[in-house]
Amino acid sequence: MRVAAAPSPPVSRNLLAASTTDVPAAPARERLGTEARASFGPLSPTSTFYLGLVAVALAIGAVSLLIPSTPSYDPWSWLVWGREILHVRLHTTGGPTWKPLPVVFTTVFALFGKAQPDLWLVIARAGAVCAVVMAFRLSVRFTRQITAGLRRAESGLAGWLPALLAGGVAVLGIVFSGGYISDNALGYSEGLASAVVLIAIERHLDGRPRQAFAIGFVAALDRPEIWLFWGPYGLWVLWRDAGARPLVIALFALIPVLWFAPEYWGSGHFLRGVSRAQHVRSNSYALARCPFCSELKKAAWPTVLLRIKVAAAALVVAASAILGRRRLAGAGSQPWSRALGLAALFGVVGAAWWVLIAVLTQAGFSGNNRYLVIGSALVDICGGVAWAGAAAVVGSALARATGRRAGALVGVAALTLVFLLLPPDPVRQDVGLIPRTHRALVYQAHLRDGVTDLVRRYGAGRLLSCGSIMTEGFQVPMVAWTLDVHTVRVLGPPSAGAGPPPNVILQTRASRNLGLLPIVHTWPAVHYRYVGHSGPFRLFTHCS
Questions:
Q1: Nearest 5°: phi and psi at 469?
Q2: Considering the domain boundaries, does residue 535 fall inside one?
Q3: What CA–CA distance (Å, rounded) separates 450 from 399?
Q4: By residue range, what is the domain housing residue 380?
Q5: 2 in a domain, yes or no?
Q6: In contact, 388 and 147? CB cutoff 8 Å
Q7: In the 8-state DSSP scheme, what is residue 2?
Q8: Is 367 helix (H, G, I), strand (E, B) or coil?
């Protein structure tokens, strides 16, 4: 394999491109910056790119509100908490696990009153868009560096086609992973966290460890599992860069403050969120006979298309063999070999993330599918690079055999067709995904419109003065936000027995195909008056 050496730009150019906090003081950092420009060319990462990405993603998130939109259960709780923090009356009891990252946004957005839910949806959806774009970028980056060593594939269209295939495969894998579109459309934060993680990784690859650590801090405010990776990275930065010590120590100190202090304020217990996270739904894999096995087999494994998982595994094996042989032969590190190793590492770390979530599920935590997104994105990137690498190898072989550069085109086209036509066909399999997701989102938006209209017509004050209020379990935080009360003020249907009868019932279905809850006849001795309905909601009262 012939490796094309990347041109070395002048040192002054590196200095001008560096941030004020990450001046390239070591040859390794200078080499990383040079490789980034070699892989992207005119698209090399700069602050302008990230600002442009955020602006475009926010615009897409804002336009998406033209579709009927609403947050889901956890996001509604974050919205309630944001408003309560603004009014200095936080009460986390009755809600899900505390998350600092989304509540930072919802607290600021509470200043805008009724626009708060839509503003958060814009952020959550923009984060999901950024994650997809960053997966594309990293796939392109690794593929460009790897294929730079192939004859006649180091520049021009032949060099870009495999990279574009890698990005396309990664994007397809993420977008069509289980629940990615619906979860992020409903305001969950895992898409935003995935975007932040991928940006942090890219900043590290560009020789900006302080920036990578600071950006990783944002992701660590969303998922505590990230601490297992972000924490050791911070210690490495601390050891490597004495000037970064104030930054590292400050962010290390902020993590427990932002995670546990609000919980103590809102509930009186530092670990209320940990306890709440182990109160799982009846369909959680934490209740399976083997939670670890079920999480891996039934949740993690299906999140990535089989053709991508197999390709990622093949790349890990091939990279281990190639890099191991080069190491034994005493060959020096090259840009293409480092990129190959990194792409394989993505696959390994992605699988390790799945195992981590499975271990937590075994420990009694819920193991929701959306927790797997970060690992799935890494596996998708690895699989995309694997498909592109195979296309580049086939194209290079055809070009050498025929003496024509069109061989590269044929190789990419052939592998693209193989990817699309392998059974089960991802396009044919998921052709109904978008319509189904749209129908589900529209129904959820009707729930929001219905309860808003009922509260407006009947009056929040009248409902609250009537007595206790009960609604379908998943609508509790939404009703609490609409009534401007603590989440604990609104009850969910009793899980066992009848319990005390509520004075107000806001009855609805969690989705179109589920039954109405709460069931009014659960309390046959109480005569409820049917007040009216709006959308999917029905209002019954029995005022004291």
A1: -125, 135
A2: yes
A3: 63
A4: 11-429
A5: no
A6: yes
A7: P
A8: coil
Report whether 54 contacts 122 (CB < 8 A).
no
Helix-helix angle 73-86:476-483, to 10 degrees:
30
SS3 471: strand
- Is omega for the bond preceding 494 within 30 degrees of 0, making it cis? no
Per DSSP bridges, beta strands 504-507 and 469-471 are parallel
* 3-state secondary structure labels for all residues of 414-462: HHHHHHHHCCCCHHHHCCCHHHHHHHHHHHHHHHHHHHHHHHHHHCHHH
Question: What are the backbone dihedrals phi and psi of residue 525, each rounded to the nearest 5 degrees, phi first?
Answer: -80, -10
What is the spatial distance between Cα 263 and Cα 273, in angstroms, rounded to a whole number? 7
DSSP state of 21: S
Q: Which of 374, 398, 429 lies at the terminal end of a domain, its last residue? A: 429
Terminal-to-terminal C-alpha distance of the chain? 83
Both tokens assigned to 18: 């560096």
Give strand pairing partners of 530: 540
Same domain, 166 and 147: yes
Contact residues for 165 (Cβ-Cβ < 8 A; gap 6+): 143, 384, 387, 388, 391, 412, 415, 416
Please give the helix or strand (H or E) that residue 504 lies within, else none.
strand 504-507
Of 309, 441, 287, whose CA–CA distance to 382 is shortest? 309
Chunked into runs of 10 residues, the chain (544 residues) has average pLDDT values of 42 33 42 46 64 96 95 96 96 92 98 97 98 97 84 57 93 88 94 97 95 97 96 96 95 96 93 78 83 92 92 96 90 86 97 96 88 96 95 80 71 86 62 77 95 95 95 96 96 82 96 93 92 96 87
CB contact at 8 A, 19 and 211: yes
Asked whether 200 and 212 are in contact (CB, 8 A), the reply is yes
Domain-ending residue, one of 376, 404, 429: 429
* Integer CA distances (angstroms), 177 to 77, 301, 385, 419, in order: 26, 10, 18, 16
The token pair at 383 is 């699989």
Q: Please state at what angle helix 156-175 crosses helix 116-147, rounded to 10 degrees.
A: 140
Q: Is residue 71 part of a domain?
A: yes
CA 315 → CA 37, 179, 319, 322, 385, distances in Å? Answer: 24, 26, 6, 10, 8
Tell me which residue has tokens 């959680």. Answer: 284
